[in-house]
Design brief:
homodimer, alpha/beta, 13 helices, 14 strands
Chain lengths: ~400, ~400
């Protein structure tokens, strides 16, 4: 899949496909899936933490009690009983909502696609963090959005920069943010920044899309209020069970006001008619067992916290002194910045050669920035593998620095 | 959901949403879901025919043998082993294919959406049958396609009319057809028409999208070759397990050449990352048991054939003499044409009042035609309910005719 072949339909594709490209990184990831390679690339949840016997029991209960429903078409909005469950789940983070205002989607990714479909005309501006979730860039990019990339620091999006852009005349269709434990940045928007963003967007009449996959994966400290809780009218909220339960059921959702909900449902029906009743019923039942889901979530948080600790310690030990990285208080990712002259994308092949993989930073910018940056995921490999992987990376980067110095670069 | 409310984001929606409207028929269908109403509207497969114990065994096997995979993210193209299964399934209808050329989608509906996304620029022309599958009109319409509606008769699309349109300068981006037991027409494209369509499109360089959900649900007669088998290069083929197995797993697929496949995969990843591994593994395993899936399919075909027979007999008995309808040799639907002056959409409220529901014909045309037509589905209600429903419809239409004559209309 490294390159699109020229073909008989070449003159027929829509203009938007020119923005869809198979990255050269794909080919490397195929290699990186070999077992001897430590992948710090993919954000795969540690589903091995899910209790197999309980999953089995949940699925059998669903089939016994609702077999014909599970195997049938459903409505475009998703089952009401599941939407009630998702509202309870949002309540865990203080987000108020009504099941009528929820649309179940195929993971939160489909919510990004459907919101892109109903909001973005070609050339419309979408404000995103820099770096931003690559899947959001793909989803919105498919509708030919132009991106306004707002820089981030340890406190998340630098809202002053957004304000500056608005002063200079930018008029984004919406602002997209992963405020908690961002992907890829691993940073969390501070309370002050949240208040500032809410106030600015409300004043400017710009809706905010808050994507919150990691909120319940907090390792320490007190949770900050979700943007949706701070301004229910102007924020469209996205959730998913991919990180608290399983990505294999593909259950995410949108919480928004009715006019948005109705358009998202129509777009959903045009996109795939409806989600899988079977997967929705399994999800609903999973979260019906309080001890079950809370116990699993606790186990996941403990596992990820410990892996985060191990990764941060290994980075301190193995990475060159002039590299730096974020220290996430939750979620899946650490964002590493190498010396300016290093090219993380160019180095990926050498890294895979040394049996370790990561995602080069340029993937997370719409404008080619991030050459000296990379994303590391600590969610999936066990602690020994994390240490081994970071040590291999450290050796690679140290060797590169040596080479650079030898060549007179410093 | 009857009407979209005006809202604070009203100036922000994309232009394409102006074509997405919640039909007034929705509100009626909410009423029609009451148990006392015989619904001849929805195309819900008779999933009660699926053997519960075998489903249970299949699901448990999947969880036992591949639990962590089932609960994890997968690739955008869908599992190779499932794609191999789908290739075998296509072989049942003589369609040749390679697993590398298959992309698994969320039902065939998502395939329509993704193909729309990669092929349709706003204003592009798409040639469809008249009447056409309403979900295709929604999917392509969301990308602002303009429809070229080609009339149909008992032999399917009248290809002469398409040729005429090409002569007059129309240049469709593709032709979309449900050649076998069409939805909603219930007609099958004859061999002569297939040859004519293949030749015309090949000569004009226009790809054909062949959507074949019902092909294996043939009640009598010999199967005709699929368009994909007749011209593998120029036909993009869509399949689904929704009718042979279960719509609840949401498994459909595209079979196309590599350049299309690669673009569909990129569009799929932007749309929802990947399908449900759990649902894909269940589907694969279901079709691994030859006796199981063939036995179920046989049972479904017998059930649908018998229901079709009952519906056709009831129509002959109860409908007014000046109504006529198609006689499907497979699939789910009968297409009814009433006298010109009747308005099936206007009559739907009265029908629901009389405890029977159908889909008004106008839903299946992009241009407001079909006021005196309607679609009846014989797939879901049992035979007694079908007879009762058709009798109620017959009484309604007969009363309408009486009223019309009394008012001097004839």
């Amino acid at each position: 899949m490294a390159e699109l072949s020229i073909d008989r339909f070449v003159d027929r594709y829509a203009r938007r496909t020119s923005g869809m490209s198979a990255s050269e990184v794909r080919a490397l990831f195929a290699v990186a899936s070999r077992p001897e390679v430590v992948s710090l690339a993919g954000g795969m949840p540690y589903v091995q933490a899910l209790p197999a016997a309980e999953i089995d029991a949940v699925v059998r209960d669903v089939l016994r009690e609702a077999g014909p429903t599970a195997l049938q078409y459903g409505g475009g909005q998703g089952q009401l009983s599941l939407r009630e469950t998702l509202v309870r789940l949002m309540g865990e983070e203080g987000v108020p909502g009504d099941p009528d205002d929820v649309v179940v989607t195929t993971g939160a990714q489909q919510a990004l696609d459907l919101l892109g479909k109903i909001f973005i005309d070609p050339g419309d501006v979408v404000a995103v963090e820099a770096p931003a979730y690559v899947g959001a860039l793909s989803a919105f990019g498919a509708y030919e959005a132009r991106f306004l990339a707002i820089a981030t620091d340890a406190d998340g999006m630098i809202v002053d920069d957004l304000e500056q852009a608005l002063v200079q005349g930018e008029r984004p269709t919406f602002v997209y943010t992963v405020a908690n434990f961002s992907n890829p940045g691993g940073v969390t928007m501070s309370l002050r920044r949240r208040e500032q963003l809410i106030g600015l967007c409300r004043e400017a009449g710009i809706p905010i899309i808050e994507d919150n996959p990691y909120g319940l994966l907090r390792f320490e400290g007190d949770p900050l209020p979700c943007l949706k809780a701070m301004d229910p009218d102007n924020v469209i909220y996205l959730g998913t069970v991919s990180k608290t339960f399983s990505p294999g059921v593909r259950v995410g959702w949108v919480l928004a006001e009715q006019s948005v909900v109705q358009r998202v449902v129509l777009a959903k029906e045009a996109a795939d008619l409806c989600g899988s009743n079977l997967a929705m019923l399994i999800t609903e039942r999973w979260f019906a067992g309080e001890d079950r889901w809370r116990g699993t979530l606790d186990r996941l948080v403990r596992t990820y916290r410990s892996r985060r600790d191990v990764m941060l310690a290994a980075l301190g030990e193995h990475l060159p002194a002039d590299a730096h990285w974020t220290e996430p208080a939750g979620g899946f990712y650490v964002w590493v910045t190498l010396p300016d002259w290093m090219d993380a994308k160019a180095l990926l092949a050498a890294a895979v050669e040394r049996r370790v993989a990561y995602v080069p930073g340029v993937a997370f910018y719409a404008d080619g920035r991030g050459t000296n940056q990379l994303r590391l995921a600590f969610c999936y490999p066990d602690e020994d593998r994390i240490v081994e992987g970071v040590a291999r990376l450290g050796a690679l980067f140290t060797d590169e620095e040596q080479l650079y110095r030898n060549l007179g670069g410093r």
